[in-house]
Design a protein that fits this description.
This protein is mainly α. It has a domain at 17-27 and 55-135. The protein has helices at residues 2-5, 9-22, 54-75, 81-100, 107-135; strands at 38-45, 48-53.
């Protein structure tokens, strides 16, 4: 249960993104997969197609991860300082990788990093408000 509630969901998103780019040599099914790979094509009309690529799937998964993390922070019964600290570490890793790694310098990774930073600051703000209510300072 620790891997679901104790670890930030953005950790899994970051690991999936890194494995997409570094796993070509080690994981056979990732050999032909890139951010531009098409996942789904739906023909809406003869002149319009709905195309879903891997990069959009990452953004959709990142949106769900942000929802899960904010709802975990809002409904937690105990003060989860370690989880907030891990969220900040993951957000810092996103920022550092965006500036230092060439394959991470794209809009998808930037948006995922911003979502991770929103998760970390949102969790911190929610925990501060919960701690203030528990102490009842007047």
């Amino acid at each position: 249960m620790f891997f679901i509630t104790g670890i930030s969901t953005f950790t899994w998103v970051l690991l999936a993104y890194v494995s997409l780019h570094l796993g070509h040599d080690y994981i056979g099914m990732l050999k032909d997969l890139s951010l531009n790979s098409t996942v789904l094509v739906h023909h809406i009309s003869p002149e319009r197609d709905f195309v879903l690529r891997v990069r959009e799937v990452f953004l959709i998964v990142g949106s769900f991860a942000l929802f899960i993390e904010i709802s975990k922070a809002a409904t937690a019964n105990s003060f989860g300082a370690t989880e907030t600290l891990l969220s900040f570490v993951v957000a810092i890793i996103f920022v550092v990788m965006f500036f230092m790694v060439s394959w991470a310098q794209n809009a998808t990774f930037l948006i995922l990093g911003m979502m991770s930073l929103i998760d970390a600051t949102g969790g911190f703000i929610i925990e501060l408000n919960a701690a203030r209510r528990d102490i009842n300072i007047k």
